[in-house]
Amino acid sequence: MSHSSRRARTVIDSALLERLEILAGAAIARFPDVAYPLVNKLTAAELVERSSLPPDVVTIGNEVLYRDHLTARDLRVRLSWPEQADISQGVVSILTPVGVALLGLAEGDQFQWTTRAGAERGLTVLQVEPSRATAEAEQQ
């Protein structure tokens, strides 16, 4: 899976880096098409403290409205850790092509990639909403 982003730099919560790196490393043998792009994204990312993460940047727990360029449909999902994922409920794992694409993007950002089958895919982030847990943690 090759990819490109329409933004200068991906922004990631530094508190999540270690767990994301462990997940990516563990997934390399089974899911290289997801793991390698995640590793590349983490390597190139600007790491910031959670309190400095812009509110319109996608991170674990956020609800995201995005436009799928292939279908021209707007989709709403929540980005999650793999063990919490439930696609029937709109909860997407970070270890999916869409999960990797969304991580660290901000409203208005676009992300494009080529699937294993050679199909071009892309999305545009339309809206980012913090999760209730994230909002509660920030208030403490």
TrEMBL record:
Pfam families (alphabetical): GreA_GreB (PF01272)
GO biological process, one term: regulation of DNA-templated transcription elongation
Gene3D superfamilies per UniProt: Transcription elongation factor, GreA/GreB, C-terminal domain
Keywords: Kinase, Transferase
GO function terms (MF aspect): DNA binding; kinase activity; RNA polymerase binding
Domain Transcription elongation factor GreA/GreB C-terminal: 54-129
Superkingdom classification of source: Bacteria
InterPro entries, alphabetized: GreA/GreB_C_sf, Tscrpt_elong_fac_GreA/B_C, Tscrpt_elong_fac_GreA/B_fam
PANTHER family: REGULATOR OF NUCLEOSIDE DIPHOSPHATE KINASE, TRANSCRIPTION ELONGATION FACTOR GREA
Protein name stated in the entry: Nucleoside diphosphate kinase regulator
Naturally occurring in which organism (per UniProt): Cereibacter changlensis JA139
